[in-house]
Amino acid sequence: GLATMEVTLKHSGSLFMYAGNRGGAYSKNSFGNIYTAVGIFVLGRLFREAWGREAPKMQAEFNDCLEKNRISVSMELVTAVLGDHGQRPKDDYAVITAVTEFGHGKPQFYSTPELIKFCRAWRLPTNHVWLFSTRKSATSFFVAYDALCEEGTATPVCKVLGKIADISVPEGQRIM
């Protein structure tokens, strides 16, 4: 059949969801806690690094966009201060994993291309995405997975995926 398999890296951190100043910040099934405070701090830093002097203006526009369109942005928040989830990062970072538009009915999750377009417009970090759309490339992926799943680290795994994927979409913005 006609199908495409998407593959991304798993970042091990805490789920952080943000819906603007009025929409709120949520993490660990709660709000107003250390996880949301760190998430807001990291998000602000992402805007400063991406936009420089324009950061306050762009972050205000981002908040307005989220609130006006009833959008929630979900991200994996990887920090050294919120407990261990594997190897500790050298610096805190976030990767956008989902964008949800709530509208006035059933929530709509953005497709991968829509998520990437949204994040690139706001200069937010996205994951590297590899697409496998042929039997040959999918088979190559599973062979590589079997060989690397126990001991492969991100750099060699990414290099292998880049060689065997039909399409490779690099991560957006610098991930710390």
Structural class: alpha+beta
Q: Give the CATH architecture of the domain at 9-126.
A: 2-Layer Sandwich
Record field, number of beta strands: 8
Percent in helix: 40-55%
Order of H and E elements: EEHEHHEEEHEHHE
| The CATH homologous superfamily of the domain at 9-126 | DNA ligase/mRNA capping enzyme
CATH topology of the domain at 9-126: D-amino Acid Aminotransferase, Chain A, domain 1
Strand order of the largest sheet: 3-2-4-5-6
GO molecular function: RNA ligase (ATP) activity
Provide a concise account of the structure shown.
This protein has six helices and eight strands. The chain has 176 residues and is α+β, with helices and mostly antiparallel strands.
Can you put this structure into words, describing what you see?
One of its GO terms (biological process) is tRNA splicing, via endonucleolytic cleavage and ligation. InterPro entries: tRNA_ligase_1 (IPR038837). GO terms for molecular function: RNA ligase (ATP) activity. The protein has 176 residues and is α+β, with helices and mostly antiparallel strands. The protein has a domain of 118 residues: DNA ligase/mRNA capping enzyme (D-amino Acid Aminotransferase, Chain A, domain 1, 2-Layer Sandwich), CATH 3.30.470.30. The chain is built from 6 helices and 8 strands; from the N terminus they run E-E-H-E-H-H-E-E-E-H-E-H-H-E. The strands form 2 sheets. Strands 3-2-4-5-6 form a 5-stranded antiparallel beta sheet. Strands 1-7-8 form a 3-stranded antiparallel beta sheet. Helix 2 crosses helix 3 and helix 5 runs antiparallel to helix 6. The mean pLDDT is 88.
